[in-house]
Amino acid sequence: MTLEDRPVFLGVFMAVFILGFAWRGISDALAGDLETAIGTLALAIGMTALTFGVLIEVVQLRFDRVEGLIRLRRIKASGTREESFPLAELHGAEIESRRAAGSGKRRQSATHRTVLVLGADQRRVPLSRTFAQGRQAEITAEAINRWWRPVSDG
User: pLDDT-based confidence at 11, cuts 50/70/90?
Assistant: First the structure.
């Protein structure tokens, strides 16, 4: 089984946001305000590097019964990192949650991420470095547990 998380929405959102800054910088340059234009364009370039070099990450998770391995690959513009774990150490997938206090109508918000539970020490390996709202972490954990349980129970 292979699972993959491609943060397309975040990438598109950040690209549009950054293009707004770039457009503002170009407008300032055309209006003759070169000092502001250079600052705004430098900000757009910095945000682009931060967003696509550090924040945006494709996560690939492959469970291989033949090799008896779990392969976790993280792909960023700055490079690829891969970790492997013995499939026999898998105890399942769980959800880690965080609650943040807010103000106004949003007094609390919960964010989640999926973790693999591995080894006798029940070590938790997060699939994502970030927490997110919504049901995606739950859906991912359920898919992993559905695939894994027939092997572990049999």
Answer: confident
E strand residue ranges, the chain: 2-5, 58-64, 69-76, 79-86, 90-101, 108-118, 123-126
Q: 112 burial class (0-12, 13-18, 19+ CB within 10 angstroms)?
A: buried
- Give CA 80 to chain center in angstroms: 14
Other beta carbons within 10 angstroms of residue 59's beta carbon come to 19
Q: Contact 124/141 with Cβ under 8 angstroms?
A: no
What is the predicted pLDDT for the residue at 104? 62
Q: Is the pLDDT of residue 117 over 90?
A: yes
Kindly state the DSSP code that residue 134 receives in the 8-state scheme.
S
| C-alpha–C-alpha distance, residues 125 and 64, integer Å | 17
Q: What does pTM read for this prediction?
A: 0.67
The overall average pLDDT reported for the chain is 84
30: which 2 tokens?
């055309």
User: At a CB cut-off of 8 Å and minimum separation 6, what does 18 contact?
Assistant: 44, 47, 48, 51
* Separate counts of helices (H) and strands (E) for the chain: 3, 7
